[in-house]
Amino acid sequence: MALLSLKNISRSFGTTKAVADVSLEVQQGEFFGLLGPSGCGKTTTLRMIAGLEKPDSGTIQFQNADVTNLPAERRGFGMVFQNYALFPHLNVFENVAFGLRARHASKAEMGERVASALELVQLPGYDKRAVDELSGGQQQRVAIARAIAIQPALLLFDEPLSNLDVSLRESTRSELRELVTRLGLTAVYVTHDQEEAFALCDRISVMVGGHLMQTGEPRELYEHPSDIAVARFLGRNNLIKAMRLSSSDASEGEFKTLEGGHTLRLPVKHSELSPLNQPVFLAIRPEHVQLRTNGDSGPNSLRGNIREIVFAGATSTVRLDAAGLLLEALVLQPDGLSINQECTVVLPHDRLTLLQNQRG
Question: Which residue of 109, 210, 215, 273 has the smallest Cβ count within 10 Å?
Fold first, then answer.
């Protein structure tokens, strides 16, 4: 049974539908992500979970109890905001103890829990410091300490690392993941950063335009996006528009690309197939596109011309034109490749994905 369950929740602001009919489940002990571009509804969804916003329709259940109309202070959830929301007139101790005071904890319990929380976020001895004496990374840790000091049943994060520089963000997210795991907490984490979500979360729901598009483990989302919006958002993808040629009972799908007129084959499920006369999108990651200069051919092999090579340190991007079908390949070493060189482009059948939802 899921610890947290959202069932068909929606929220509008005026005529704008911020969240549209979202359903998801979070399991006990799970680090769950809500990932999507700015304005997609993920923060509004998190605020409804927290009780800071009320859904117009749908229900929110926690531990099998309906908490849709329960005030935020009675839900027992901890929340870390993007701007940390620390009180500048209170020192570190008082900031961390704020939730405990609201719950009427004793002085002894308060001191013990604050000390423990600061120890966990590696800020022991910082209790008397003023907030404005702390760096951004230290302020973020104080905000996390405040959230975990109340021993929350659920921990909510709203882009807590977005104000940190890149190097500090990378080190802090690994510490955050280790902390949540060590404490055995359940967390819901909102971010627009794909790399951050992949590094932290056990499962992720991708949101676009207020809709939940796909939920799955990071590798599943990356390698098998079900929707063109997910494929476009989750990193670089070669999106190939095509028409189905094969019959619905064929063991593999056969498709003709609209640009270049190439025939591509890939394994498909009968339930994924669209009508014969309806254009579809196939997707393949640049790192899965293979380049050969020896003229070898085989299944899903296309003749291509190298138009551009972009060096980016550890990898290089090779942009190709296969009779009008523009593709990108990611290679470790571009040695032996040059502009205007003819080559064979191979799109491995097990790396091609038929996008089930074709909304562009």
Answer: 109
| Separation between Cα atoms, residue 189 and residue 160, nearest integer Å | 9
What sections of the chain are H helices per DSSP?
A: 42-50, 92-102, 107-120, 136-149, 166-183, 194-200, 218-223, 228-233
Q: Closest Cα partner for 105 from 67, 96, 187?
A: 96
DSSP SS3 for 286: helix
Band (271; pLDDT cuts 50, 70, 90): low
- Hunting for tokens 């760096």 — which residue is that? 135
Q: What is the pTM of this model?
A: 0.86
Structure-block tokens of residue 293: 């200069």
Q: How far apart are the first and last CA of the chain?
A: 35
Instruction: Quote the tokens at residue 331.
Output: 């290679």
SS3 10: strand
Q: What confidence category does residue 269 fall into, taking pLDDT thresholds of 50, 70 and 90?
A: confident
CA gap 353, 282 in Å, rounded: 5
Amino acid letter at 109?
A: E
* Residue 13 DSSP SS3: strand
- Whether the CB-CB separation of 33 and 173 falls below 8 Å is answered with no
Mean pLDDT of 264-279: 75
